[in-house]
Amino acid sequence: MIGIRVPASTSNLGAGFDCLGLALDLWMHVRVVDGVGEPVYSGTVNGMDRRAEILMSVVGDALESKNHLEIHSEIPIAKGLGSSAAAAVAGFALRQLLHKQSLDRDAVYESAVDLEGHPDNAGAATYGGFVLAAPRPARLAFNRNLGVALAVPNVPIDTKAARQILPHDLPRDVTIRQASRAAALVLGLMNAEGDLIAYGMDDQIAVPLRKKLISGYDEAVAAGKEAGAYGVTISGSGSAVVAITPVEEVDAVAEAMAVGFGKAGNPAEPMTPEVTERGVAVME
Question: Are 81 and 129 in the same domain?
Answer without folding.
Answer: yes
